[in-house]
Amino acid sequence: MTRKLILSSPLLEITISRLCQELIENQLPGIETVILGLQPRGIYFAERIAQELAKNMPNAPLLGKLDATFYRDDYRRREHLEPNSTDIPFIIENKRVILCDDVLATGRMVRSALDAMTSFGRPAKVELCVLIDRIYNRDLPIHPNYVGKSVNTLNTEKVHVEWKEQGHKADKIWLITNQ
Questions:
Q1: How many Å apart are CA 118 and CA 122, to the nearest integer?
Q2: Cα separation of 129 and 19, whole Å?
Q3: Where do the Phosphoribosyltransferase domain residues begin and end (predicted)?
Q4: pTM of the full predicted structure?
Q5: HSE (CB half, 13 Å, CA atoms) of 117?
Q6: Which residue has the higher pLDDT, 15 or 59?
Q7: Where are the alpha helices (DSSP H) in the chain?
Q8: pLDDT band, residue 59 (cuts 50/70/90)
Q9: d(Cα 54, Cα 14) in Å, to the nearest integer?
Q10: Can you give the pLDDT at residue 43?
Q11: Less packed terminus of the chain by CB within 10 Å, N or C?
């Protein structure tokens, strides 16, 4: 197994700041923006986005956590899928929803999240913001609106994100190859 560092501080902070500037530039006039982090690892990215946006916007967007485990197309086929909590203390009806995840690979988790979101209302618009886009792994026609970094990967490779909030010493994103 080999590990290659593909992103870490301070470039990670610059990337998040750039993504937030894009989110601000594309605001919809008169429409409130909310952020939903995909459980389990997308919530750390969503929290960073929300913190950065709060510094640069007069009205900080609301932040929620969405678990789409029960909406996955492989839910009944996989063993040991443990759901996380969903915490969305607001309605998303007629709002701009920024769906945040750390890594976009096949697109199946995003499809599941879109299904799960319907329980909280019908948004005016949904946009996908990802830290890492594994561009050659898509199973579904899902494309992110905002990308921190695009990475060419093989099916045998994995992208692993380490956040300080998870107990790691530093934020690091690794490309792991099983040989």
A1: 6
A2: 8
A3: 6-164
A4: 0.92
A5: 27
A6: 15
A7: 11-25, 42-56, 108-117
A8: confident
A9: 16
A10: 96
A11: C
